[in-house]
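Collaborator request, handled under Task 6.
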Amino acid sequence: MEFIFPPTFVGFDGHFPDRPILPGIVQVLAGMLTASDDSMTLHKVAKAKFSRVITPGELMLVRAETQKKDGNILATIIISVGGDTAATMALALHPKEFAE
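Structure tokens returned to the collaborator:
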């Protein structure tokens, strides 16, 4: 999936006033949306490495490789901007009804 967050995106508010960068949680959520549909919820961020800041207006490409196991999804996420790796993460997703 591709995402572009404009300078007016609320996630940039206060993060940081003189040099806005996309918060890590927004990147995790973008990975989650790419890896699954709306029936899944985030259970665990097994690991995450943020290696490049993402600023307003940049095109963010999010790729997900998924494995299904017992109704859960294990996702490896790679986020890139301008050909550079911006973040990598491993996410564990569970069905929403399992989390309730």
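The cover message to the collaborator said: "Residues 24-35 form the longest helix (12 residues). The radius of gyration is 14 Å. Please let us know whether this matches your experimental observations."
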